[in-house]
Amino acid sequence: xxxxxxxxxxxxxxxxxxxxxxxxxxxxxxxxxxxxxxxxxxxxxxxxxxxxxxxxxxxxxxxxxxxxxxxxxxxxxxxxxxxxxxxxxxxxxxxxxxxxxxxxxxxxxxxxxxxxxxxxxxxxxxxxxxxxxxxxxxxxxxxxxxxxxxxxxxxxxxxxxxxxxxxxxxxxxxxxxxxxxxxxxxxxxxxxxxxxxxxxxxxxxxxxxxxxxxxxxxxxxxxxxxxxxxxxxxxxxxxxxxxxxxxxxxxxxxxxxxxxxxxxxxxxxxxxxxxxxxxxxxxxxxxxxxxxxxxxxxxxxxxxxxxxxxxxxxxxxxxxxxxxxxxxxxxxxxxxxxxxxxxxxxxxxxxxxxxxxxxxxxxxxxxxxxxxxxxxxxxxxxxxxxxxxxxx
Length: 392
Fold this sequence. Notes:
The protein has 392 residues and is of the alpha+beta class. It is built from 20 helices and six strands. Strand 4 and strand 5 form a beta hairpin. Helix 2 runs antiparallel to helix 3. The chain starts with a helix and ends with a helix.
């Protein structure tokens, strides 16, 4: 009889478990992973590196759920600890003076980063531009970081025989139920810690949850934290964070801006043009940039227009007339197949094309920037003349 060593070693002590609330936890983690920053003044490249750290920390949190379900409980706790450590590094490369931020990022990129979570947080409590104030005004948050990491380390470092694979299986179901409860409590704490640390970089995910600010804010990379994540963060922590210098300084500047109406806000934040309320849009056209106003002017030429695509697909403006289920794609259109620029048949609808070669993208690439206008029925001569007269 041949022994199956692999099966014996990998399965004899594993106790897989189903986490009933995992979709809820995944949704919270996804919210943080989508809260990418564009607010680092250093440069876009630096911001992108910080965004990579944000997504990696969230991946570690997600991994912990899967690992625990498979039975690798200590690895699950290690992933949670890694997420908090990465979030701490995120602060160290995003909450310092210019030269130190760049130096820390270079050290991290070259695998020479010397600091650990505890020493880094101690330094930032004394020297961080924003975290110093956060630590003073949110002492319970700082305590939660320390207490949670102590708990995570107890599993990672195998303190006690009940953290041995070979022993845990012999405990009763009440033990495993309590272990699962502890895991979920630590997971929630880890999610909350990473979320608040993310806000220290820039508070937009929390700012945008406030309607008064959302209707004034420019369109940036990040999204507002949803109600579920805000509830997990807790009213007390949110209230304390809103009293920090980093939050109040952003809030004060944004509240100086004019509040957009619903129709203009839809354009700025969602690339959506309400053709039924063009009057409201033009009332606040001064709040639109040249790029946005250009597409409003095009859409206003006909209520038949459902979608405008330009800038090689980077700009896509949908309209209130877009209620069909056709997937419109500018790459499907071969200009060589048509001698006409207007009323080209596209599935059950039509597409018309304007040539625009005066924008920055065209100047950089040296290529003509085509504007693809998808519409429900054929344009008449009046509509075509309007489109040709739009200042591009």
